[in-house]
Each structure stands twice: as structure tokens, then as C-alpha cells.
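Q: My labmate handed me this sequence with no annotations at all. I'd like to see what the chain might look like in three dimensions before we decide whether it's worth expressing. Could you predict it?
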Amino acid sequence: MLKCRQATRLMSEGLDRPLSLIERLRLRFHLVFCRGCRAFKRQTAFLRRASRAFVRLSDDDTP
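A: Here is what I predict for the chain of 63 residues:
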């Protein structure tokens, strides 16, 4: 099973590149058992959505 450090690294890398099937399966298995990493995944997704929304709002304000 992945350690939390490995799982969070894979989650971060998954934002930049497609994960392999084995990486996705190992990460999914880890997330089933690890509440802390599930929270990290939710927080990362929230920050990504908030950043994109901020950029869209900033673009709308430009003359």
C-alpha cells in the first residue's frame, strides 16, 4: 500500500499528467483507507476550482 507521502505526490502529479492504470489503482486503494489523504484530495480540488474562478473574475475586470 502507498504511504501518505507517495499518495499526495501522485495526486499532485495527476494534476499535471495522466496517471498510469497502476498508479490510479494504487491511489484509489489508498484513498479507501486514508481519511487524511481524502481530505487532501478534496482541499486540492477546492483550491484548483477557486484559483480558476479567481482568474476568470480577474479576466472579466480587465478593460
